[in-house]
# Entry
Amino acid sequence: MKKLQMLALLFLSLFFVLACTSDDDEDFTDTFSDETSDKTDSEPVNDNETIEPSDDTEPVSGDDTEPVSGDDTEPVSGDDTEPVSDDDTEPVSDDDTEPVSDSDTEPVSDDDTEPVSDGDTEPVSDDDTEPVSDDDTTGPDEDVPPAPGEICTAAGGTWNETEETCTKITDCIGRPEENTVWNGASSYTQTYADGTWSAEIAAEYNEEEGACHFTCSSGHVWDGSNCSPDPLLSIPECSAASGTPCKDSASQVWSKKSSATKYWSKAAEDCDTLDEGGFTWRLPEIWELRMLITDCTKTQADAETCMLSDDHLGFADGTNCGSCTSNSTGKYSILGDTETLWSATKVSDYSSSWVWILNFKKASFDYDSYSSSGDFKYKFRCIKK
# Structure
């Protein structure tokens, strides 16, 4: 009887425990279902969450034969709420969101963009452009010699294809800057051959016209290195009343007349040593002395019948010129001379030692011996060198 009572009591207790457990499970299931449903909407992984609550029912059913009342309430309540809540929220959320996001975005982006871009652009560009360009351009320069026209141009010249010549125009240099003018072309043509240019031409003072020749400007004379003011500009025209030095119509400058007659050789020596007006002097030639004749149409410088000149110095050239009527007033000399004066010119076709002389008293030509041992002495005037 007691065993039946105990068995009945056991069944009643078991029924009570099961009833209580069912209510708690339903409450827990409702609560858990609400929470997990919210998470299920936002987080994709919920399959593993329903597996653990099913384990909660197994310990309860296994422990039915042992002290139920003491162990049913605490283990079930404690084990169902805490483990399920902690395991479902934290591990699932951390594993799904962070690792997947980090692994997919960064490694793929770095590997695809950087290595491919660096390897394709730089090596290909460097290898294709530079070596090919250098080999193609330098090759012809080493194998093919430059054409003559190219050599000419490089040297600064102009190539004439027809004549096959290389030339350039070069300015003359070295002309004094003051009081000079070009007496011809101020430049010349240089020719290039065998790697060198033809010789340069220096400017020079020259009364004959030519390339790089120059003369003095008006009112200036060449002094050997420069064109200085012409001293003749201040020298008066020769006349019977003028002093000396003076100049004739041909701008020849004359000195004073000697005060005494002298031998020809002594007259020449005195002119070489004369100091007058700062000039240097010499004994005049016969055609220069002729420039002093005036008012005698037979012998003056423009007389067409008298041929005595620098290239006509024979005996007949002077003696056939004639003479004018003797006059002692000095009318036949622009300086008023009436004496016979020495010249430095020898008679070209006479066998003896004779030189030409000029008698201003008649404006006639004659000749005499120039020997220093002779008896002939005459006066003289000197002419500027």
About this structure: The chain has three domains: 2-110, 151-228, 236-384. The helical segments are 2-42, 53-62, 68-143, 148-154, 264-272, 286-289, 315-319. The chain has seven helices and 16 strands.
